[in-house]
């Protein structure tokens, strides 16, 4: 009998890892997953990482562990860099040492948002804040320390699980009569459910076109458009006001435009990507089913 592929998923309690866990339950029995939360495996500890890989005999590692608090990172750059750069380096070295492939998740925040056409994988990163900077450093560590990697940059991730803009809007929309959301930051929401399918496709089809990829849903939206669609699809009545970013100042500056070009991933994986509105409908449905 053929040995099952072994896959380590780090950051096992986070939004993406939880979504991945729910997705794999119904998919491929030829793959064995080990979901490690931050207590099981602290990716900033090089000895713990090496030890985990020595015992685990993994074929793949999906790095969902990250410091994701964009604003807090501005005053805590040390921790952001420790997790997003040093953690990525530890995993890349361990993968290289044990001949495992790494699927490392990164972000549209590596770009400064000054472009007016979708960002390609070959465009030069120039992060605006500490979070984006630490994620870019993490990408560089992966590239420097191994060959068999997929770096997937994604944007505006949301799902039925964990903390995200979609769930916050549902909560605030039900609690408040009026909400203000920025309309001058434009990007693309990404269903973590769709991203999980992409990760599983790479593993189950043993894709070997290693490198950097961009993945989001199709289409373009402002955060205001996204919020309006969340309320519309979920039949929530709220007075939604479009505001400028300068009326809602945050410690970290965010890219004004972070739409990504997905031609590379669509070609390599031979797939179509759903429009963000279609995926929002699907995720709203998943959340509704899970809440009953
Ligand atoms: N969320 C977005 O909008 C978005 C957008 C673009 C890209 N991304 C990227 O997508 C990936 C997944 O994001 P997400 O939304 O799933 O984030 P998340 O919900 O914040 O999950 C991150 C997980 O990482 C874990 N973690 C933190 N430090 C760790 C450490 N030292 N060792 C092991 N685990 C550690 C956290 O565990 P504890 O809670 O126990 O610390 C948490 O469960 C990240 O790489 C993120 O940068 C996210």
By DSSP, the count of extended strands is: 12
SSE class? alpha/beta
Pick out the low-confidence regions. Answer: none
Instruction: Give the proportion of residues in helices.
Output: 25-40%
What is the CATH class name?
A: Alpha Beta
Domains (count): 1
Radius of gyration: 19 Å
CATH architecture: 3-Layer(aba) Sandwich
CATH superfamily: NAD(P)-binding Rossmann-like Domain
Give the N-to-C terminal Cα separation. Answer: 41 Å
**How would a crystallographer describe the biggest sheet?**
6 strands, parallel
**How much of the polypeptide forms β-strand, as a percent range?**
15-25%
The bound ligands are:
NADP nicotinamide-adenine-dinucleotide phosphate
Strand order of the largest sheet: 2-1-3-4-5-10
Shape: globular
Assign the CATH topology: Rossmann fold
Average pLDDT taken over every residue: 96
Helix segment tally: 9
Order of helices and strands: EHEHEHEHEEHEEEHEEHEHH
What attributes does this structure have?
292 residues, alpha/beta, Rossmann fold, globular, binds NADP nicotinamide-adenine-dinucleotide phosphate
Account of the protein in words:
With 292 residues, the chain is of the alpha/beta class. It contains nine helices and twelve strands. The chain has helices at residues 15-24, 46-56, 77-98, 130-145, 165-175, 192-204, 223-233, 263-268, 276-291; strands at residues 5-10, 31-36, 60-63, 101-107, 149-154, 157-158, 178-182, 186-187, 190-191, 211-214, 221-222, 239-243. The strands form four sheets. It has a six-stranded parallel beta sheet, sandwiched between helices. Helix 2 (46-56) runs parallel beside helix 3. The longest helix has 22 residues, at 77-98. The model has no long low-confidence stretch (mean pLDDT 96). The structure holds NADP nicotinamide-adenine-dinucleotide phosphate. The site of NADP nicotinamide-adenine-dinucleotide phosphate has 26 residues, from helix 1, helix 3 and strand 4. It is an enzyme of class 1 (oxidoreductase).
């Amino acid at each position: 009998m053929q040995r099952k592929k072994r896959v380590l998923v780090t950051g096992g309690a986070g939004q993406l890892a939880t979504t991945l866990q729910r997705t794999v339950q119904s998919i491929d029995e030829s793959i064995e997953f080990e979901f490690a939360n931050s207590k099981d495996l602290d990716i900033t500890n090089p000895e713990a990482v090496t030890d985990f890989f020595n015992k685990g005999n993994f074929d793949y590692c999906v790095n969902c562990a990250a410091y994701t608090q964009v604003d807090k990172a501005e005053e805590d750059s040390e921790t952001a860099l420790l997790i997003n750069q040093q953690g990525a380096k530890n995993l890349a070295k361990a993968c290289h040492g044990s001949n495992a492939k790494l699927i490392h998740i990164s972000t549209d925040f590596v770009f400064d948002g000054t472009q007016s056409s979708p960002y390609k994988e070959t465009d030069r990163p120039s992060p605006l804040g500490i979070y984006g900077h630490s994620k870019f450093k993490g990408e560089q560590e992966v590239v420097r320390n191994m060959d068999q990697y997929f770096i997937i940059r994604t944007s505006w991730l949301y799902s039925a699980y964990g903390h995200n803009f979609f769930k916050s809007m549902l909560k605030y929309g039900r609690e408040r009569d009026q909400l203000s959301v920025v309309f001058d930051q434009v990007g693309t929401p990404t269903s973590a459910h769709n991203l999980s399918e992409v990760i599983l496709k790479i593993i189950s089809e043993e894709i070997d076109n290693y490198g950097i990829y961009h993945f989001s849903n199709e289409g373009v939206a402002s955060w205001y458009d996204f919020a309006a669609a969340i309320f519309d699809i979920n039949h929530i009545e709220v007075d939604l006001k479009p505001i400028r970013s300068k009326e809602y100042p945050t410690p970290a500056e965010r890219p004004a435009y972070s739409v990504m070009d997905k031609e590379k991933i669509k070609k390599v994986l031979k797939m179509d990507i759903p429009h963000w509105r279609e995926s929002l409908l699907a995720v709203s449905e998943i959340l509704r089913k899970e809440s009953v």
